[in-house]
Amino acid sequence: MIYSIGLLNIVDPFFVIGTKVFQLQVQFAIGMHFDRYF
User: pTM of whole model > 0.85?
Assistant: First the structure.
């Protein structure tokens, strides 16, 4: 139980950073897509 909680505390920051980076990449891709057509 303690080990799994520690593992979540280690993984969670990386998961949050990963999701933020993914959102930025999606926004950038959408921005490039619209810049190409408009």
Answer: no
Distance of CA 28 to the CA centre of its chain: 13
Q: How far is CA 2 from the centre of its chain?
A: 26
User: What angle (nearest 5°) sits at the alpha carbon of residue 34, between those of residues 28 and 36?
Assistant: 100
Judged against a pLDDT cut of 80, whether residue 1 lies above it is answered with: no
Strand, coil or helix: 6: helix
For 5-37, b where at least 16 C-beta lie within 10 A, e where not — what string? eeeeeeeeeeeeeeeeeeeeeeeeeeeeeeeee
